[in-house]
Amino acid sequence: MDIRIGVGKSDFAVLRDSGSYYVDKTEILYELVHDTGNEVTLFTRPRRFGKTLMMSMMECFFDIGKDSRGLFEGLKITGHKEFCDKWMNKSPVLFISFKDIEAENFHDAYAMLKARLADICKKFPGLPGDGKVNKFDSETFTRLEGQEGNTADVKNALKTIMRMMHAVYGKKVILLIDEYDVPLARASEKDSAGNPFYSPMLDVVRGIMGTSLKDNEYLDLPLSPDACALQRKACLPVPTILPPIPCWMKIFLNILVFPERKWRHCLPQRTGAARHLS
């Protein structure tokens, strides 16, 4: 049977449902929870190393609103039965990506950020109307959903949504942040005396990251992949609140990188593909 390669697919559920080839990295779920003990984890990995797919896989595994048993059938993580019984689809999850927050100036980038937060709110239409939720949080949520929130609303957006989710589910929230560095990287590139971009964007991003990740009592297992924390000055201020997990750290070595022996094993030998990549 020919192998189907899901080129460009970063949604774990879509990849699995389509029968596309998947290199099993699910063991990271167990090692992350069982072996690190970190309150916050930042993965520093180069671009195109599957960070978004990894985040999507984690969302599918943990999200209390999903039934993911079929998606993970046959994968390594299912070998940890007690772990799966305790963690699979047992936690509220908030997953946000900043990958599209790019613009030529701060005004437009800030508008895109507010639109992104509005999209997140639309994923949880039942939150503001739940009787367990604080009415002022519901009002803030409504402003964010309508892209009418003030700066304080925006900076506290993720924490506000997490507090609401905690009130509804009675459990701490797993926060997954993908490509938080994109707004800062773009701001650094376009910043100039005539286009003050970096400082105001840094203020907003630092506010969002700080309120959601630092001393947040509603937070459980926060995770963020980063492509440039060790490379560009644009991203350096924010990771100071995150303990980096470099991709060469021993406990994640077989999961966060793709050694030659593994990709050669994955290639269909009968096609001669392995020889072509020598």
Description:
The protein is α/β, with parallel strands linked by helices and 278 residues long. Helix content is 45%, strand content 9%. A 5-stranded parallel sheet has the order 2-3-4-1-5, with helices on both faces. Mean pLDDT is 80; it is low at 226-254 and 269-278.
The H/E string reads HHEHHHEHHHHEHHEEHHH
What kind of sheet is the major sheet?
Answer: 5 strands, parallel
Structural class estimated from helices and strands: alpha/beta
Strand arrangement, major sheet: 2-3-4-1-5
Entry summary:
The chain is of the alpha/beta class and 278 residues long. It is 45% helix and 9% strand.
Considering the chains and any ligands shown, give keywords for the structure.
globular; about 45% helix; about 280 residues; 5-stranded parallel beta sheet; 14 helices; 5 strands; single chain; alpha/beta; disordered C terminus
Helix and strand topology:
Elements: H1 12-17, H2 27-36, E1 41-44, H3 51-62, H4 69-72, H5 81-87, E2 93-97, H6 106-122, H7 135-145, H8 151-155, H9 157-169, E3 173-178, H10 181-190, H11 198-213, E4 219-226, E5 244-246, H12 253-256, H13 260-266, H14 273-276
Parallel strand pairs: 1-4, 1-5, 2-3, 3-4
